[in-house]
Amino acid sequence: MPAFRTLNESGVQVAYDNESGEIRGLMSPAGVYTPFLGYQRNRAYKAWRAQPKTYELAAIPDPTIYIDSNRGLDTNAGTKAAPYQTLGKLLTALPTAGACIALANDSLFDLNGTGVSFSTTGSIAVNGASDTNRVTFTNYDPGGYPSQRPRIRNRYLPTSGQWTWDATVQAWYYTNPNGRSFGAYDAMCRFSDGTWGNSRSTNLPALVAGWLSVDRDYYADDTNKRMYVYAPASTDPTTYYGGPDSVILGESERGSLQFSRCGNFVTVNGITFEDCGNGLALANFTASADLAGTIFQRCQFINCGRGITTGGDINSAYTISGQFLENVFRGMAGGGIRLQFKPTLTDIAGNYFSQANLSTSHGGAVYVQGSSSGVQTMAGNRCFENYVEDAKFNRGNCPFDGAGLYFEVRTRGWDCFKNFLTRCHQGVCNNTGATVTVRHNVFDDVDLPYMVGDGSEVNTVNSTFEHNTAFNCGITRYRLGDSALSASRPERDPLRAVLGLFDGISTTAVMNHRNNIIHLAPGVSKLAGMEVRRSATYDASGNHFAGDFTNFVQTYQFGAVADVVQAASTSSSKDVALDDTYAVVSGVPAAPVLSNLPSPLDLYGMSLPVPKKGAVSL
After folding, report:
1. 235-257 pLDDT, tens per residue?
2. Comparing C-alpha atoms, which of 517, 488, 392, 376 is closest to residue 445?
3. Torsion of CA 302, 50, 598, 422, to 10 degrees
4. Which of 116, 244, 489, 548 has a CA-to-CA distance to 1 between 20 and 30 Å?
5. Pairing label, strands 13-16, 3-6
6. pTM
7. Position 2 confidence tier, pLDDT thresholds 50, 70, 90
8. Is residue 224 scored above 70 in pLDDT?
């Protein structure tokens, strides 16, 4: 049973562990208990799953085309009694609007690195006609397999004889037999013993002798379509790591099931993708029209480079909109969902992400990047009710960049709310992506819940972070960015605050970071609550801090200007919670004041009610 202490005159109480004295949760005056998720992850996950959802899944019609890898033949008629055998058959028996393609639950479709791509090239595009006249891919039970799901696998298994020694860079490489890039940022490199490779190609550093120096280092060379994998000069990687099928590679630049300049009003439902460099993809390169109405739902992505990807030309005038709902991502070299270049009216909701950034920590479980052209057209995007855990593996040559939700440069028009994020270095990285709102989220064991970064554009539009709760912050003290960048920018090293590090902000930016609960992890000290760089207009009112903070808000101007700390006075009552809140305008904090905790404390219905004080079993 926990012990309770009153936080302030609002009547909110803090629950403490009787033995360790660490915070276990918060109790509202109405008897609503909000658990500290570090102790309640399993319970919190179940509560998340049990909550009513605020989105709708696409309806699945009766199948019209059947595919069974075990019992079918491509010479069949494609009926339930006489199914096709391969996905490739669809390239010659092209589905049209209203079709529902069903894959047998016990089927395994091994694509051997080739993938299946529907495209306007070659007149093999697949599109529905409207939201009520879609093309649907789903699953069916052929008899006796009700709980299984069809699996799509798309990988390369290099043999010993397919490796070439490169004497210049002192490493072995495998050339993509399909002439495509593996993907420098999150190509898949796994090993048959269950371990993952360590990417050394993020941000495209030069590949020189000695760059791959330890077991499982790898480098995706997109220029030459090669994958370099470390092994001693005397032994090729396949032999070195255990023999046939010991090295598993996948390319992240092309989907295993891909829709190129097509995919309008297409639903993909209930299919498992495993050992794929890239699972599902929408590609709108050299586009002549927007893509709209795509729904990827209730699919699983297991041990992939990426799970779901959208992409297009960086200067494209065309948008991509879709819904990505209730998918499961377990084990990603990089991120689970990667949306690039003008997502608009897009929903990412109800997804479960576990173990992202296993090979490279550059991206996030969700990674979004805008376009260089027409950024004002990106609007109406939502990321909500997702559960993200384990994006904190310190992998690759940018080991500490990993985030739960990552909004890259040129991103616009996102509303992030009601997400759970746990065990991440950064919760939400807003890398100078403007008009991103982060509200009513829960962070646990997240070192830096929110950061506005130093991307290539200047943030001149509002950034909003409000009504969030962050427990157990600041456990890992680390350098931000890769080592070369940090070495040239000493102000980024080490972690200085649990909310902030607002690099590269224009003096005209408006930053609203208010009404949050920020809890510093037990035993962590010498961190500020928030930090703002340069002199943006900054509203930090109504925040509540708990823990051994050095100060609540500090401003810092880098360059030749010395470190300047402007902060509200700290309280000596460090063992409970600091009651000080403050308002900041243009970087100048006001005197500390007392106020009630942000409302509603029950955090959008995710907390667990208890009958009375002292009756919580944790």
Report:
1. 999 999 999 999 999 998 889 99
2. 392
3. -20
4. 548
5. antiparallel
6. 0.84
7. low
8. yes
pLDDT at residue 278 is higher than 90: yes
The first and second tokens of residue 9, run together, are 């005159």
Is the pLDDT reported for residue 584 higher than 80? no
- At 371 the pLDDT is 67
Cα 359 to Cα 366: distance, rounded to the nearest angstrom: 15
Residues with Cβ within 8 Å of residue 197, at least 6 apart in sequence: 189, 190, 191, 216, 217, 218, 229, 333, 359
Residue 395, token pair as written in the block: 């992998």
Q: Is the pLDDT of residue 124 over 60?
A: yes
Separation between Cα atoms, residue 22 and residue 524, nearest integer Å: 12
Q: What is the average pLDDT across 552-579?
A: 35
Partnered with residue 199 across adjacent β-strands are 218
Q: How far apart are CA 584 and CA 286, in angstroms?
A: 47
> How far is 464 from 576, CA to CA, in rounded Å?
28
Look up residue 91 and give its two tokens: 């390239």
Radius of gyration of the chain (CA): 25
Distances (CA, A) of 83 to 70, 90, 101: 10, 12, 11
Q: Name residues whose C-beta falls within 8 Å of residue 609's C-beta, 6 or more positions apart in sequence.
A: 31, 32, 33
pLDDT at 608 over 80: no
Rounded-to-integer distance, Cα 301 and Cα 274, Å? 6
Residue 93 has which token pair? 């028996």
Contacts of 140 (CB under 8 A, 6+ apart): 63, 66, 80, 102, 103, 104, 105
Cis bond leading into 494, ω under 30°? yes
What distance in Å separates the CA atoms of residue 154 and residue 417, rounded to the nearest whole number? 34
Q: How far is CA 21 from CA 4, 11, 15, 16, 205, in A?
A: 10, 20, 9, 5, 46
Closest CA to 99 of 65, 131, 66, 60: 65
Retrieve residue 603's tokens. 């955090």
Chain centre to alpha carbon of residue 66 = 34
Helices vs. strands in the chain: H and E counts, helices first: 3, 49
pLDDT at residue 588 greater than cutoff 50: no
The pLDDT, as a whole number, for residue 30 is 60
What is the C-alpha separation between 506 and 421, in angstroms, rounded? 29
Q: Which of left, alpha, beta for 472 (phi over 0: left; psi -120 to 50: alpha)?
A: left
Higher local confidence (pLDDT), 19 or 313:
313
Q: What is the pLDDT of residue 50?
A: 67
Q: For 275-313, give one letter per residue: b (16+ CB within 10 A) or e.
A: bbbbbbbbbbeebeebbbbbbbbbbbbbbbbbbbbbbbb
Cβ neighbours around 573 below 10 Å, total? 10
